[in-house]
Amino acid sequence: MKQILIIDDDIHIGNVLEEALTKEGYGISRAYSGTEALYALSGSKPDLILLDLMLPGLNGEEVLPKIKGIPVIVVSAKVDIDNKVDLLLGGAADYVTKPFAMKELLARISVQLRKPADAFASPNLVFDDITLHIDTHTVNIGSKEIRLTRTEYAILKLLMKNPSQVVTKSLLLERISEDTPDCTDSSLKMHISNLRKKLREVNDKDYIEAVWGIGFKMRKV
């Protein structure tokens, strides 16, 4: 069963949406503010989100950039064309103006759910305050860009793709060869040492820890 999260503080509209979507066979969860929505998303990942813009606390425009890897259909009374364009460029999959025809909304939901899940995958990897941009091969800590070698970037990318796991030395050598050919068993320790130093120089945080005799993993600091 596909799961849909409705983020809307209008109880009546939310009830109408929930009733219609439940009849269509979808599982429904609700959030009534931007803050509540982000809390809900920290514990579960729906297949699609219906997002109102006029929310208490964090509004829809503030919530949208924080949603990663999930198609979002904005459902709003705002009709300004520039606003629609900004939201679509900012990550929304679609935009439906209130009041809406339920038949049209259901069709738009169906279209989004037919798309492959990886169509909505974020081009970034994020860990703590590190952002790795897969499309541009750049890395930032906060707003500061970190200059990494090709090998250092490849190591960090693999570790950030597996943030809760210890990545063994043999797996590191095998996988990072996809991005760089110049890392060997004897040079791996040096590359990781240099990477840790560059990251640590920004704010004195050590983001990578060595697990003795096994490999390396990302460390929350």
Describe the structure.
The protein is an alpha/beta fold. 40% of the residues lie in helices and 22% in strands. The protein has helices at 11-23, 34-43, 60-63, 81-89, 102-114, 150-161, 169-176, 185-203, and strands at 3-7, 27-31, 48-51, 72-76, 94-97, 124-127, 130-133, 138-141, 144-146, 167-168, 208-211, 215-218. It has a five-stranded parallel sheet, with helices on both faces. Strands 6-7-8-9 form a four-stranded antiparallel sheet, with helices on one face. The longest helix is centred in the C-terminal third of the chain and has 19 residues, at 185-203.
Ordered list of secondary-structure elements with their pairings:
Blueprint: E1 3-7, H1 11-23, E2 27-31, H2 34-43, E3 48-51, H3 60-63, E4 72-76, H4 81-89, E5 94-97, H5 102-114, E6 124-127, E7 130-133, E8 138-141, E9 144-146, H6 150-161, E10 167-168, H7 169-176, H8 185-203, E11 208-211, E12 215-218
Parallel strand pairs: 1-2, 1-3, 3-4, 4-5
Antiparallel strand pairs: 6-7, 7-8, 8-9, 10-12, 11-12
Helix pairs in contact: 6-8
Q: What key phrases describe this protein's structure?
A:
221 residues, 5-stranded parallel beta sheet, alpha/beta
Give the structural class. Answer: alpha/beta
Name the poorly predicted regions: none
| Residues in helix, % | 25-40%
Please count the helical segments. Answer: 8
SSE series: EHEHEHEHEHEEEEHEHHEE
Oligomer description: single chain
Strand arrangement in the largest pleated sheet: 2-1-3-4-5
| DSSP strand tally | 12
Strand content: 15-25%
The description of the largest β-sheet is:
5 strands, parallel
